[in-house]
Amino acid sequence: MNWLITGGCGFIGTSLIKNLLEQGNEGIRVVDDLSVGSRSALSAVAPHYYEGSGRLAPGDVQLLVADILDEEMALAAAEGIDVIVHLAANTGVQPSIADPRNDCLTNVIGTLNYLEAARLGKLPRFVFASSGGTVIGDCAPPVHEELVPHPKSPYGASKSAGEGYLSAYHGSFGLEGVALRFGNVYGPGSSHKNSVVARFVRRAMAGEPLEIYGDGRQTRDYIFIRDLVAAIRLAATTPGVGGKVFQIATGCETTVNELAEMLIPILASRGFDAQVRHAAPLPGEIRRNFADTSRARELLGWSPRTALAKGLEETVDWFLNDARQ
Asked: How are strands ordered across the β-sheet holding 245-248?
């Protein structure tokens, strides 16, 4: 298969590319504007990548430096491609509150550009990175695919719009689009992420307290990066799942306080004396979130394999090794 991965220089993108190259001679084209991801992150998993276009050969990794708002580039990038994995986005609740217009342009129009490229190129599959909790908003968990969205933030609204367009392109044009609602993703390779696990580890390594917003009793569902990559691959290749939405998480509800309590002894065993400090709660954040992943288990044959404690240990060790290089 030839893969087009938008946002492919980021945390999830480079993890997917690493897995694809380990598993076979897939052709990979990356579109990234390098605003968050970097050439160095891509070269760490694909040292022989090259910049430019042209026909993909097995094992090739091409990088096109471009904005996903460039619709002509989207059409060109989709040539010769079998599946688009659309990861590029304005990510996070707080950035969307700070600049809702930019969030909308990037996440709605950027997604539309690549749906159009898939439609016009008659691509057989499109995988869209959505968000587990922010699309639905506050509800009594577990979150599942049949709940009506009530997003609390512009980010949740823009991801909900992306899911809507994916459904419309399936219904109107037959595009085999699959939306994956990611839980809180963590793991090796997340050094530039502003997610809570990465932020906690960075602060501990800098000798700063682990800062928790609010009382820390808000809950999330933490999914390890390798488990997430496995779900993306299945969503890209499993027949008969076009038009579906899947929750990709663990089904385990963990408070931020519990997360800190798990991390502190791991950090201590590596020589870091981490303390906790509470700060004011942030606007737009949901209170409770964990997911029912039964649809992914039944239709994709997917289930998470990595326990949180094991994943946290591997993540901390990766951060330490990365700091030494």
From this structure: 50-51, 61-65, 27-32, 2-6, 83-86, 125-131, 177-182, 245-248
The whole-angstrom separation of Cα 99 and Cα 289 is 24
Distance CA 15, CA 5 (A): 11
Judge whether 155 counts as a catalytic residue: yes
How confident is the prediction along the chain (325 residues), in pLDDT tens digits per residue? 999 999 999 999 999 999 999 988 899 999 999 999 999 999 999 999 999 888 999 999 999 999 999 999 999 999 999 999 999 999 999 999 999 999 999 999 999 999 999 999 999 999 999 998 899 999 989 999 999 999 999 999 999 999 999 999 999 999 999 999 999 999 999 988 889 999 999 999 999 999 999 999 999 999 999 999 999 999 999 999 999 999 999 999 999 999 999 999 999 999 999 999 999 999 999 999 999 999 999 999 999 999 999 999 999 999 999 988 7
Q: What are phi and psi for residue 63, nearest 5 degrees?
A: -120, 125
Neighbouring CB atoms inside 10 A of 271's CB total 8
Instruction: Look at residues 71, 50, 61 and name the one whose alpha carbon lies nearest to residue 25.
Output: 61
Q: Kindly state the tokens that stand for 14.
A: 């480079």
The set of residues, in sequence order, having a beta carbon less than 8 Å from that of 53 and lying 6+ positions away, is 62, 64, 76, 77
Choosing from 155, 169, 186, 222, which is the catalytic residue? 155
Task: State the Cα–Cα distance between residues 128 and 118, nearest whole angstrom.
Answer: 12
* Beta bridge mates, 36: none
Cα–Cα distance, 214 to 217 (Å, whole number): 8
